[in-house]
Amino acid sequence: MAKLLIIDDDAHLRESLAEVLELEGFETRQAGSAHSGIEAAKKEDPDVVIMDIQLPDSSGFQICQTLRKRSRNTILIMMTGRFLSSEEKKQGFELGADEYITKPFDLAELSIRIKQLLSRRSPQAEK
Amino acid sequence: MPPSARRGKLAYKILFWFLLISLVPMAVVGWHLVGISQASLRKETLAMQESLAVGFSDTVYKYVTTFRNVLAETSGIEEFASMDARKQQQYLNRIMQVHLAVLELSVINVHGAEQMRTGRFLGPAPEMRSLENEEFFAETMRRGFFIGKLDRFQGLYPTALICVAIMDQKAQPPRPVGALLARVSLNGLSSMLGMEFPATGRSAAAVVDKRDGFLIAHSNPKEVFRPEARMSDEVLKIITTQTAPKGGGEMALSDGRRLLGAYSDVRDLDWLVYVQQPVEYAYQTAAEMKNQILRVLVWVVLFTILLSLAVAGHITHPIRLLREAAARLGRGQFEDLPEMMTTNDEIGDLAQTFLAMSESLKEKTGELIGAKQELEKFTKFLEKRVEARTRELKAAQDELIKKERLAAIGQMASVVGHEIRNPLAVINNSIYFIKTKLGGSPAAPDAKIEKHIKIIESEIRQANGIINEILTYSRTRELKPERVLLNNWLEELLSVYPFPPHISLEKRFDPVNPAVDIDTTEMQQAIRNLMNNGIEVMPGQGAVSIQTRVSGDRRSATILVGDSGPGIPPEVLDKIFAPFFTTKARGTGLGLAVVRKVMDRHGGSVDVESAPGRGTVFKLTLPVVSAGAPPLRNGAGPEAKSA
Lengths: 127, 643
Prior knowledge:
The structure holds 2 protein chains of 2 kinds. By secondary structure, chain A is an alpha/beta fold.
């Protein structure tokens, strides 16, 4: 079972998203800040990390960069509540982001997308 | 002070030098001449006085000698000594009759005793005196005659004694046997002096005994007929110290008077004749001459002043004219310069130079004035430009303020929208969770719950749509223009637009299919917004019309989007493009604001024509790409995209 880490400072969003994705069959972990998120990622070694771009202690881009350095296989999904310029998006992709989703998101679509990304991961990265 | 009102300092300077040059030598020469003539006058006066004195001393001598001769004639008669007394008396009487000046006559014997005495005021039997001890008797006996012994008859009238010896002619040698004595009045001398020197008070003459100053005669009788009439000691002292028998000179007396005096001794007597004249009278001629010279000098000064004024005026006239002209030039008056005679001298040269200078000055000033006018014109032009620019700036500023306000609104909307997205996402998650849970349960879910879940999902979508609209309006997205052929592009847009069945579409495209540079995404949004609005107000049957028109000069193209709806009330017509202005129950009021923003970003404009009941037409005007315009940066040609 794939393990998901959700990093968002909004507890409701975090929890609701986690529970929906659990319904979809994922194992989820949550973190409320960039720092605790990175700690959790180190400890849990999740397959997918969904993180908000704006966090109180750091930016999602920062986490993205850190996690991508740690592992090439982790799927990194950026969450945002606002429009991103194409420059911002490019920057995110360059730092290793795999996907962008805009709040509020179609959860069915998100679930399928995650599964798709997981299935495309290189076989040697499979656990 | 106007320059012509006074003569000017130069004229007075010239005048001063004229006077100095002309008058001073004259005055000096005149004064010198007066001095010379005064000296010569003095000499002359003195010489004249001396000659008068000499002449009169001779007269005095003759006067006295006359009486001596009269006496000598009588005494010299043979046997006078031996005559009887009666005969002698007859002789004496005859003398008395002829010579009125003889006051007394006496016959004295050899012993000095008076033997006969007759006189005008003596009476019938006068006293016979013994005169043997008298010095004059002794001298008469010794010398033969005596003149002297001055006295004043009755204390007033000067008299002199004249004594002549009576000789015994028979004796060998003849010897004196008695004397004939006469007392003679000397008033005649005073009369003569008075005639010679009238009592004008100017000059006076006197006959004086130089031993004691006894005044014998004087030209002024008042001086002499006094008991103690004497010559002043001071003058007498001055004269008696002279050794020459005659002379003269200027005397300064202790009382301050200055006299010209001359004297001459009377021959054989200790008398002298003295002639005096106060210096001022002596020099009167000289003084008159001096006055005359002064008068002449005054006249000459006056005449010279007038002449000098005229000459100085004449000389300085052109200079004053020059000055006046210069003053006019200084005031900037180049016309009506005073007429300047160009004389053939330095002043003429100066005038010529001045005229040349004024000409060049006039020219330069003209240039300056021209430049000044140019400058003023330019300044006015600049002022107008500045005014125009200020107006433009003001308009731009107003626009900027408006834009800033809009931007602030947009920013706020963006923040709000963003913040709402989070809870919206949570609701969305939760409803998804519920729906999934319900769908997964074996029991059939309640139809109403499903309905409400759908409502929530629909509302979430709508809320999200509103937020998207707001964020789309407020975000600053970079414009990405493409060059398209307008008609083709619109055709493509319309072909995919979901027109409802009750709406008909009318298309009327201009045969000129203009090329325009547009951000197709935004422009599409704008036209869609307009069509959406139109369709929204036409719930029943209606028509949407899409037209294109190209301006006569082919520089702009207009897209007209019309509907056959109820139209917009005139009172709201000017507000419809404002953000958040809406008349709908549900609407952000951003649809038309987005249209205007898009048109602004494309350098175009949007306008609306509407009348209630007659539909509405929006006109979107865009610049047309001219034939020779360079391709866009992305290199997309119109044909490439519009195909």
